[in-house]
Amino acid sequence: MVDSDRFTFVGGLEMLGAYAMAAGGVRASRRLFLCFYTVLLRAPMLFFDTTPRGRILNRVAEDISCIDRVMPFTVRSMSNCILGTFASIFVIAYTTPRFLISLPVLVVVYYYIQVKCCHISAAKLLHVNYVNAQALALFSCLAYEYLHSCLSGRWL
Fold first, then answer.
1. Which residues contact 93 (CB under 8 A, 6 or more apart)?
2. Average pLDDT, the chain
3. How many angstroms from the chain centroid is the CA of residue 119?
4. Is the pLDDT at 1 greater than 70, yes or no?
5. Does the structure show a pLDDT above 70 at 103?
6. Which three-class secondary structure state does DSSP give residue 13?
7. For 4-24, what is the mean pLDDT?
8. Taking the alpha carbons of 63, 131, 135, 117 in that order, is the dihedral positive or negative?
9. Which of 72, 80, 81, 96 is a plausible cystine mate for 25, CB 3.0–4.6 Å?
10. Which of 28, 13, 31 is nearest to 72 (CA)?
11. Residues 6 or more apart whose Cβ sits within 8 Å of residue 111
12. What is the per-residue pLDDT across 119-149, written as a single tens digit (0 to 9) for each?
């Protein structure tokens, strides 16, 4: 196979992957919008009396925008990670067939570490993100105050 044919093949695969990600993103966005729409139409009137229309619209628009912008890249990254893992296991197994004997033990150990030991809930992740954001805001405020005092000739 000539190098230009190989590059054409790889480029075609990249184009096919990009098309699949775009089509999947549109389908996921459409499905999410239909679910939002169905839930909104079935909501009781009290919900619409107490919740402003702008808040409802912003929430739906934000979630749809997140699906449109973030999810395709996340799915692409996940699929690249999974394919890279399988490729590494295949290369190791091809060059060292005895590796296949220890593979089930490694899978069990990996499962135990990932699921049992490192299980972090979404609430914990949101809390960590909130705490880090507060710390960053405090640090930037202190840095700004220090810079301002240094530039004005006063020391803290």
1. 99, 100, 103
2. 78
3. 17
4. no
5. yes
6. helix
7. 78
8. negative
9. 72
10. 28
11. none
12. 666 667 666 666 666 666 666 666 656 656 6
> In the numeric block, which tokens belong to residue 27?
């389908």
The tokens of 44 are what? 């009781």
Asked whether the CA dihedral 70, 76, 80, 83 is positive or negative, the reply is positive
Contacts of 68 (CB under 8 A, 6+ apart): 25, 29
Output 103 or 72, whichever has higher pLDDT: 103
User: What is the residue whose two structure tokens read 């009781």?
Assistant: 44
Residue (of 33, 98, 38) closest to 62 by Cα position: 33
Question: How far is residue 82's CA from residue 138's CA, in Å, rounded to a whole number?
Answer: 39
- Please enumerate in sequence order all residues whose Cβ is within 8 A of that of 32, keeping only pairs 6 or more positions apart, or say none: 63, 64, 67
Burial 25-51 (b: 16+ CB within 10 A, else e): beebbeebeeeeeeeeeeeeeeeeeee
CA distances from 7 to 14, 16, 21, 87, 100 (A): 10, 14, 21, 20, 33
Query: In this predicted model, which residue has the larger pLDDT, 38 or 11?
Result: 38
Structure tokens at 117: 């030991």
Decide: helix, strand or coil at residue 63: helix
- Amino acid letter, residue 66: C
Token pair for 115: 């699921």
